[in-house]
Structure formats: structure tokens, C-alpha cells
Specification:
Layout lengths: L2 H13 L9 H17 L13 H17 L1 H13 L5 H4 L1 H13 L5 H11 L8 H8 L5 H13 L1
Length: 159
């Protein structure tokens, strides 16, 4: 499946009320290609010729996917519930689309398991009155995407 078709399919999923496909393998492929490109750009990998796909194109794909995943407010609500309880939303109440979007979000942004998030938030909560939680969360979870760190901080403030 081409990258354009993957993005188009994801866009249709996010903007429509009907779940057309619950495929997350395509997202894994995109994530792998973007990670490969970033490793080339940072010099962690070398190649005798230019990359497989142009880096500007891959950068725009990455940006588009992140925009899609941040489009739905339901994803943020479900993410906060996931952080607090460690449970997936009830598909009977929230619908299959919400589960699909949450799984894409967790996969794309490499969200740590809920137990790790809960431990980090518990350690930071007493210090919250004196400083922002974002730098502390970043130190505790260095591989976690900035978007997720921001949502964890919001979750902590709303608790």
C-alpha cells in the first residue's frame, strides 16, 4: 500500500463515523520508514546513496499523521482515562473508532504502559506545586514523545 493511500485511509477513519478498517500494521510501516529516515539524517545509519524516500516527504507524512492523531478530542479524553485507570475505554460506550484512534495514538507516540505513567505521575504530584511537571516527566520518561508528555501533564493537572 502506498504512503498516500495509508494517509488517505487514516484520514477517512478519523473524519468519518464509520470504522472502515482496524489495520494498524500500515501505521507501523510508516513509523519504521520515518525512524529509518531520522536515523539517516542524524548520522546513526550510513548509506552509499541517498535515502530510499526523500526526507522532506517523510517529514510531511510524519506531521500529517501527528495532526490526524491530535485531531480528535475523544483521543485525549480516552488517553487521560487510560493514564488514570490503565484500562481501555468501553467499546460499547465509546465505539470502535475511539479504540482504533487510541491504539494508533499509543503506537505512533510510543506511549509507555499505564503502570509506568502512573508511577511517574505519582512521583511528580507532590512536586507539582513548586514547578511545571513537563521537565520532570521528560527526565523520567526520556523516550516518550513531547505530545504524550504534554498530555500526561494535563492529566496530572486535571486530577
Amino acid at each position: 500500500m502506498s504512503f498516500y493511500a495509508i494517509i488517505r485511509s487514516m484520514t477517512d477513519q478519523v473524519t468519518s463515523e464509520i470504522v472502515l478498517s482496524s489495520d494498524s500494521l500500515s501505521l507501523s510501516h510508516l513509523k519504521l520508514v520515518v525512524a529509518y529516515n531520522e536515523a539517516l539524517l542524524r548520522g546513526r545509519l550510513t548509506t552509499s546513496r541517498d535515502g530510499i524516500v526523500q526526507s522532506k516527504f517523510l517529514g510531511s507524512l510524519r506531521k500529517r499523521i501527528e495532526e490526524l492523531l491530535n485531531y480528535s478530542q475523544d483521543v485525549k479524553t480516552d488517553l487521560h482515562t487510560y493514564f488514570a485507570s490503565g484500562k481501555w475505554p468501553d467499546d460499547k460506550l465509546r465505539g470502535e473508532k475511539c479504540l482504533l484512534l487510541l491504539s494508533w495514538f499509543l503506537q505512533w507516540f510510543s506511549v509507555p504502559p499505564p503502570s509506568v505513567v502512573q508511577q511517574a505521575l505519582a512521583k511528580i504530584k507532590p512536586k507539582l506545586k513548586t514547578s511545571s511537571s513537563v521537565p520532570l516527566l521528560r527526565l523520567m520518561l526520556p523516550r516518550t514523545h513531547a505530545t504524550v508528555i504534554s498530555e500526561m501533564s494535563r492529566s496530572l493537572l486535571s486530577a
